[in-house]
Amino acid sequence: MASPFRKNSGWSQFALVFVISVVMMIVDSRTSWLNGPRNVVSVALSPIQSLASIPSAIGRYFTSSLSAEPDLQISYDNLRNEYFKLKSESLLLRTLQEENRDLRALLAASERLKEKITLAELMDVNLDRDNHRVSVGLGIGDGVYIGQAVIDDQGVIGQVTEVMPFSSIIVLITDPGHALPVQIERNGLRTVVHGTGSVSLLRVPFLNQNSDIVVGDVLISSGMGGRFPNGYPVATVTDVKIVEDEAFIRVTADPIAKLDRSNHVLLLSRQAQTDAEKRVEELIGESN
User: Fold this and answer.
1) Cα torsion 87, 233, 150, 125: sign
2) CA gap 56, 53 in Å, rounded
């Protein structure tokens, strides 16, 4: 006759593993104790990740060859040129209009921040309804940091939320838990865009009935919060609906960046420069 303890041993092992898993998830969400072991596991698994990415890399190679896309160097040059164009057209002009050069030099105004860019290739994409994240093949050794802003050649992609030795995780602006301070390019009205879980839709909540916003308005990063520099395109307003008995209007927008089509992204690194007058002259030189 079979022992009842033997029958229950499988369930006991399952229950033990389940309890351990729950405890580890709680510890990971509330403390940083597991960051070290996670980095060790990430290093140990990096060869397996590299092997797993070989089929997709081969597929991308043949796809790019068949579609006659430009090589990586040309793509990088185009992205870099687009970056400087966006900077000169939005960041530079807005800054020069709002700030007085002589006054800044006289009062030794606070340091501006200048962005440098790093090109990164996507390794993995996760676009389920509750989780919009991608991973890139750059990590701690490449200077990537949590909170780093990420763009493509069209607009804002998202920001870095996790950094490991050889890879990093980026949360997209369409993630349901993500919010980004923006302003309307046309009139400077500040607001916030929230992710919806749809890669093609953003919400713009908490705008009063008399807010000056219309379909077609372009939303750009406002620079509030210190994560994203100001002036980068984020979304285009697609619908403005006024509902009776509601305090706020319902506004939706489409992301400008190619969130589900980009193979490469740009990571913005911010470096302080101390000479205010020299900074303005450099910005003027870039616009010419």
Assistant:
1) negative
2) 5
Task: Please state whether beta strands 190-195 and 202-203 pair in parallel, antiparallel, or not at all (unpaired).
Answer: antiparallel
> What are the structure tokens assigned to 15, written together?
């229950």
φ/ψ bin of 231: left (φ > 0), alpha (ψ from -120 to 50), beta (otherwise)? left
Q: Are 266 and 117 in contact (CB under 8 A)?
A: yes
Q: What is the pLDDT of residue 61?
A: 65
**The pTM of the whole model exceeds 0.90:** no
129-140 pLDDT, tens digit per residue, is 889 999 999 999
Looking up tokens 């800054």 gives 95
Residues 6+ apart with CB under 8 A from 188: none
> Which of 114, 111, 136, 112 is CA-nearest to residue 124?
136
Which residue's structure tokens are 């104790």? 33
Cβ 228 vs Cβ 113: under 8 Å: no
Are the beta carbons of 288 and 84 closer than 8 angstroms?
Answer: no
pLDDT digits (tens, 9 = 90+) for 235-259: 999 999 998 888 899 999 999 998 9
- Alpha-helical regions (H) of 99-194: 101-107
Q: CA separation (Å) from 78 to 16, 44, 277?
A: 54, 36, 29
Backbone angles phi, psi at 88, to 5 degrees: -70, -35
Q: Are strands 113-128 and 156-163 parallel, antiparallel or unpaired?
A: unpaired
| Element containing residue 158 per DSSP (H, E) | strand 156-163
* Residue 203 buriedness (CB in 10 A; 0-12 / 13-18 / 19+): middle
Nearest to 174 by CA among 243, 125, 113: 125
Distance CA 230, CA 113 (A): 11
